[in-house]
Amino acid sequence: MSLVDELLETFSSTLDSSLILAIASDFSNDPKRRTEILEILNSLANNKPSSPDFEFASVTAEFNHEESHQSVAQQLNTLFPNVPINKINEIIKSSTEKKDLNSLIDVISLNQQSHHSNSLDLFQSSRTKKSKKKKNRPPKRSSETFHLTDVMHGDSKARLKEAQEFHKNPQDWFNFWVTSQSQAAYLSELLKINPSIVSSAYHNRNCNVVLSLQDILSNLERNKRAQLSDKDLEQLEIQLEFLKSVSNEPDDTLAKALIVSDLDAGIAFDLLLFMDELKKRYGTVNFNFFYSPLPHLSPAPSASTKALSPAQQIPIRSETGPKLQKKSAPPSGLSLMKCREVISDLEARRSIALRKASPAYTAGALTHGIYQQARSGISQVYSEDAKTLLNQIRHWEIKAAQLFVADRALTAGSRNSIDLHGLTRRQALAVSKSSLEDWWASTSRQPFQIITGCGKHSPQLRSILLPAVINELEADGWIFHQASPGSVIVTGSRLTT
């Protein structure tokens, strides 16, 4: 039997086998040291200290045994070489406790820890005082290429916009006619219709892709729905349930896509993806219905188009959307929900224009010469687009306010009064002015009441609309009197008396 097996058999009941193997391996199975191993294991098993050859003596005993010829100060200097000997002597003299080695070691250790923490705090405080605020350095500009013809026409808004869009994303700009022809070909192949139908609808809608697609789908749905049999209607319900599980579009949109695609769910789903892509690129149907400007280029490409430079082939169109007319009156069937949808689209496009104007302005301030002229022109283009869109937003906010007040008056059953609660100052003045003009043009000469509120919900409980309306009435020459703290009654006009 080997020594390890013998040790395991003897001490495995009281000691861990891994501990036995570790101690045995330290002695390399030397039979001469068998007694030492047994003594160590016996002391561990009986919870007794081992032999003096392998015990961990205390610091006091060790120093008393090995360095009995040295003084206590010399022993402490050996333990703490970083502490000067005079400092150790001071600690020994000032120590009120029993001057044994262990207590002195504890005192010196505590002094070193406190000194280290104080030094660290002092270092951190000095770093805090000396640290200076980092300067905001401008970001490194990436290398860009500007053609000389792009900056020679610095006063041309269209040229600068065209150059900026081309230099920023040249790979995203395809020729206008190639894109439209590709869309028309894809749609005719997807719906299995004559390409001339797509082209006719496209030109009838002034080259507006969204509205032309809407007309095509409406005509196809009307013609094909009349030809559906009872079996086709059952199949339509089944396919409609399937599309509901994979698309969030309304049921009427899903049903229209299924009908025009001859109840093929795969083709219908491709059509929905195509419609969603057009919506993201050109806006919603309602937005295109209210704002359908003519394209920047003529309806048909000319032979000289191929001779133009790549920048000239690109239509001058900003990413903020098509250029909007300043006075585009909505149709008579306009609703409050449609107004709010248009306002939401305009605000999104204005936000994009402002985000693009800021970095262009910053980059222009950091450049010189012709580059600064180009950058400043780009920023000016986006800023003007944002201003135009802001005017459009205010115009449609007034239209929405007029519809809101009209609906509230219709609900209240009052034809000769308006309630301006919930409107801004600009909206309230515009609505009151238009309402007074309509009232004065009518045959009725009953007094007209304008309700503004007395300011209970305004800051500092002071009315904001009432003074503004009174000033406006006085400037326009109306005859009125204040019937209550929150309303005004108009009885006539000074201009006709």
From TrEMBL:
InterPro entries: Endo/PolyKinase_Domain-Protein (IPR052772), Smr_dom (IPR002625), Smr_dom_sf (IPR036063). One of its GO terms (molecular function) is endonuclease activity. Residues 418-493 form the Smr domain. Residues 118-146, 301-332 are annotated as: Disordered. It comes from the Eukaryota. Signal peptide: none annotated. PROSITE patterns: SMR (PS50828). GO terms for cellular component: nucleus. Transmembrane segments: none annotated. This is Smr domain-containing protein.
